[in-house]
Amino acid sequence: MNRQLKPYLAFLLMGTLLTFSACKDDDEPGPDDEQEVITAVTLSLTPTGKGQDAQATISTLTGSPVQNAPLTLRPGTEYTAVVTFSDESKTPEADMTAEIRNERDEHLLVYTFTPEAGSGATVNVNITDLDQKNLPVGLETTMTTGAGTGNGKLKVVLKHQPGGLKTGSNTTAGETDVDVSFNVIVAN
Question: What is the pTM assigned to this prediction?
């Protein structure tokens, strides 16, 4: 081969190697970017006085939310409530609540009760657990029903608010990890 072409060929080969070794697909998530998978949300309520415990689970494993039973509450009652999260796609089922608790400085649960038209039911939710900055988390709450009866929906939204997004009062900032609505019956 001509001696004059060898330096150019070597330069071309080196440039090609640098180009291909520098190309990396940064759009693919690495192991640190893995999102938690939550396919089930369970609300467990215990009355602070006498009464029946209430529990309901919503599963999204099949793609659309399915509630196992309505959350049946008594009017004029205060409940201690705990919400838990799991990944039913794993065997055995994976409890995701511990991960959320460990990252409580970056998570906020938002609860909204909406009565059906003509319903006299009310459910007030007060978050009782706090993160390390004294901001609400929402894994533990008290829920109080009013004196009226009827049906409604209790919407539960888990917000992931990393990097200083969490203020305790901004319920829309960050990504939504879970958004489900429990069917609620308030009856004697």
Answer: 0.81
Residue 94 φ/ψ region, left for φ over 0, alpha for ψ in the -120 to 50 degree band, beta for the rest: beta
Q: Is the pLDDT of residue 13 over 70?
A: no
Q: What is the pLDDT of residues 124-139, one digit of tens each?
A: 999 999 999 999 999 9
Residue 108's identity, in one-letter code, is L
- For the stretch 40-66, pLDDT in tens is 999 999 999 889 999 999 999 999 999
- The DSSP annotation for 96-116 comes to -HHHHHHTGGGEEEEEEEEEP
Residues composing the chain: 188
Rounded distance, CA 175 to CA 137, Å? 15
Amino acid at 120: G
Tokens of 31: 């192991």
Specify whether the backbone of 150 is left (phi greater than 0), alpha (psi in -120 to 50) or beta.
Answer: left
Residue among 172, 185, 181 at smallest CA distance from 58? 181
Reported as half-sphere exposure (CB side, CA atoms, 13 A), residue 125 has a value of: 23
